[in-house]
Input
Amino acid sequence: MSVLDDFRDAEQRVAQRLKELEPAVAEYRELEAVAQRLGIDVPATAPAPAARTRRRKASTAAATANGASASARRRRRTAPAKADGATPAMRGRRRTAPGRREEQLLALIRERPGITVAEAGKAMSVDPTGLYRVVGRLEQRGDVRKTGRSLEPASK
Output
């Protein structure tokens, strides 16, 4: 048997084992997500998929460089979500009430016909990428007409 045959055989065994372990990895990820939503601290000794381990190592290295202790890093990583559904990453952000962003954007478009989404984002102090979905809803409702990049109030 040649080295190439040995390599191909090993390659097939690895592929087969990956297929066998895939359901277990999927279950682990689901349980990890449930534990996080429930605020359960997942022990650091729990086996984690390799891709997740690499991300954790990178964030741990960054936190260590910033002087954070191991317990502080663990608290940050496993902090439960607020009752309103906000994740730890969202906690510092202000959230606009549902439908309010549409009202704000529509008022701005009526005030400044021909404004672009990028200009509207600057005027509203929000990331313009978040406004594209709002523009789409306003277009579907017939409140706004988009010509090229410029936004116009629809004449009713």
